[in-house]
Design goal:
CATH topology of the largest domain: Arc Repressor Mutant, subunit A
Helix content: 55-70%
CATH architecture of the largest domain: Orthogonal Bundle
Number of helices: 5
Strand content: 5-15%
Radius of gyration: 18 Å
Length: 139
């Protein structure tokens, strides 16, 4: 199987370690079906070069994913997604993905100078509008 093009969006200002962001995003892509068992990931060296991060950062992320039995690195063959996690792990990964997404949103909103109140009100308004839109469509 060909190497999968891995799309990762790193936030160097989030306070969340880069290796954690990589782990979270790979887990999220697996849970959401973007990555599938058997997909080959880039080598540590290739991904480090592409993302312009330290080789050890990628190696640490891959080591964590390996310990969680999500990937397997086979010497001379590459790194592969090995399995879909069981439902309880998938749910945990889904929740972690939401938490990470929320954290990135909040960090960016604060960086743009919005207050906690403004952020909270905007989220409430958007959720209400989305709920109303779904209700209209279901009728």
């Amino acid at each position: 199987m060909a190497e999968k093009k891995l799309t990762l969006n790193l936030d160097f200002h989030s306070g969340l370690p880069i290796y954690t962001q990589i782990v979270n995003q790979i887990q999220s892509q697996l849970v959401n079906g973007i990555l599938k068992p058997g997909d080959q990931l880039p080598t540590v060296r290739a991904l480090a070069s592409e993302l312009r991060v330290n080789f050890n950062t990628i190696a640490r992320a891959y080591r964590i994913l390996d310990e969680e039995r999500i990937i397997s690195t086979q010497q001379g063959r590459g790194t592969y997604i090995i399995e879909i996690p069981p439902p309880e792990i998938s749910e945990k990964l889904r929740r972690e993905s939401l938490a990470e997404l929320t954290q990135r949103f909040i960090n960016e909103a604060f960086r743009l100078g919005f207050s906690e109140r403004e952020i909270s009100q905007t989220v409430k308004d958007k959720l209400k509008a989305e709920r109303e839109s779904i209700d209209k469509e279901s009728k």
